[in-house]
Amino acid sequence: MSLDSLRGKPVYVNFFASWCGPCNAEAPSIGKLRAQYAKRGLEVVGIDELDAAGQGAAFEKKYGNPYALVAIDESGAVGKTYNAIAMPVHIFIDRRGNVTTYRLGEMSPAEIETAIQGALK
Asked: For the CA atoms of 112, 67, 78, 119, what is the dihedral angle to 10 degrees?
C-alpha cells in the first residue's frame, strides 16, 4: 500500500495495535466518524503496528472494520518513518498532501472529528 494511491483525498492515518488499550477505546469512534465523513471523501487508513497478522484482523472484526484500508507493520519499520514511538498515532492529511494534525497518544472522539474537519477544508 502507498499513500500515493490516496493523492488528492483527505486521509486519516491511524497507527494502532490490538494490545493497545487506547487504540481499543478509540476504534468504535473512528468507525463512526469514517462512516460519517466518507461521503466527503475521507479515507481512513489503519496501520497495524507490531502485531501478528491475525491479531489485526481480529481487531478489525471486533470493531466492525473502522478502517477503509489496513496495512500490517509487524516489524515497526513504517511506524519509525512516522515517528510512531507509542500507540496510538493519528495523522490527518488534507487533499494537497499537507499534514494538518499529527498526534501521538489517545484522542477523544471530538478531537478526532475536529482534526478530520481540518483535513477536509
From this structure: -40
pLDDT of the chain, 121 residues: tens digit per residue: 666 789 999 999 999 999 999 999 999 999 999 999 999 999 999 999 988 878 988 999 999 999 998 888 988 899 998 888 899 999 999 999 999 999 999 999 999 999 999 999 9
Contact status, residue 100 vs residue 115, Cβ threshold 8 Å: yes
> Exposure pattern of 89-110 as b/e (b: 16+ CB <10 Å)?
bbbbbbeeeeebbeebebbeee
- Written out in words, the top-level CATH class of the domain with range 10-120 is alpha beta
Placement of cell 477544508 in the chain: 121
Which cell numbers hold the place of 63? Answer: 470493531
What's the pTM? 0.93
The partner residues of 92 in beta bridges, in order of sequence, read 12, 101
Looking at residue 87, what DSSP letter applies?
S
Domain ranges for the chain: 10-120
